[in-house]
Design goal:
Number of domains: 2
Strand order of the largest sheet: 7-6-5-8-9
Helix content: 25-40%
Distance between the termini: 8 Å
Mean pLDDT: 92
Number of helices: 11
Length: 309
């Protein structure tokens, strides 16, 4: 079993293929065990702190649920406005403070590289829940778990990533994991929101086939996985650019009817207008199942960080 004991979880490229397979195996075991009982008291007495400087629903609540399902406790600072951050406290001072009260910290912050800075400042593990337009590694892991469950394998995958690939931290982390399984990747985006060049270059140097296009029909027809993302208003300095680009790629029943075969649809959520609610009843619409899978994957990570798996 891969050893993650005491490790920070910061970036998609930190994992080996063997570690990913081990995490997904533990997640599957936990999912089965939770069908029999409500809690698995592996982390009784341990405290998880959630420090979220940006909004979150799924990531924060699934981490809190995961810790409580493992028998541990959870603390959080509430809103930024109600904490000492509102008084001018720095991120590192906040993290150093919270490290006195908790055994692991889940951090979301708008600044790229903030999670690494926090990890370097404290002796307890830091889990990156999103550092600006950087990385979101635990989302990528739950995405891989979902793909494995929906498709049945992580081998010979062709995946289309659609939407905001420039600022999308979920896809930045996901491509690192997909590359370990030699997936073929279509990148579908407006020219202004293409995947950063350093990422696509790195993938190609590692022998990954990458196709950049604005043709979502072509990409979806070639893929078993269609991974939609939101055009992120909060990442735009010029809101007129956002208004021009929002709705660039919309998934609806009419689009699905054009496809030659069933496709599995993923989305890290929240969605705005890129997936019409009429798609929710499509058999391949897996984004709500994907959301639930976050509990099992985050349980696995927490248990492994504390050496309990």
């Amino acid at each position: 079993m891969a050893c993650l004991k005491g490790k920070d979880i910061l970036h998609g490229n930190q994992f080996t293929r063997k570690e990913i397979e081990a995490i997904l195996k533990v997640a599957s075991e936990f999912e089965k065990e939770l069908k029999k009982k409500d809690t698995l008291p592996l982390l009784k007495g341990k405290i998880l702190a959630t420090l979220f400087f940006e909004p979150s629903t799924r990531t924060r609540l699934s981490f809190e649920t995961a810790m409580q399902r493992l028998g541990g406790g959870v603390i959080g600072m509430g809103s930024v406005e109600s904490s000492s951050v509102a008084k001018g406290e720095t991120l590192l001072d906040t993290v150093r403070t919270v490290a006195q009260y908790a055994d692991v910290i889940v951090l979301r912050h708008p600044r790229l590289g903030s999670a690494k800075e926090a990890a370097d400042a404290v002796p307890i593990p830091i889990i990156n829940a999103g550092d600006g337009a950087g990385q979101h590694p635990t989302q990528a892991l739950l995405d891989m778990y979902t793909i494995q469950k929906e498709i049945g394998s992580l081998k010979n995958l062709t995946v289309s990533l659609v939407g905001d690939l420039k600022y999308g931290r979920t896809v930045h982390a996901l491509v690192e994991l997909l590359s370990l399984f030699k997936a073929k990747i279509y990148m579908v985006s407006p020219a202004l929101l293409r995947m950063p060049t350093e990422i696509t270059t790195g993938l190609k140097e590692n022998g990954i086939e990458v196709i950049e296009t604005e043709d979502m029909v072509e990409a979806a027809n070639a893929s078993s996985i269609l991974y939609m993302t939101r055009i992120q208003k909060e990442r735009f300095a010029d809101l007129s650019e956002y208004e021009r680009l929002k709705g660039s790629f919309v998934l609806n029943r009419a689009f699905l009817n054009k496809l030659k075969r069933k496709v599995t649809i993923l989305h890290p959520l929240p969605r705005v207008d890129e997936i019409d609610p009429e798609v929710d009843t499509y058999p391949g619409a897996a984004y709500f199942r994907q959301m639930r899978n976050g509990i099992f994957v985050r349980m696995a990570l927490l248990a492994m960080i504390f050496g309990k798996r």
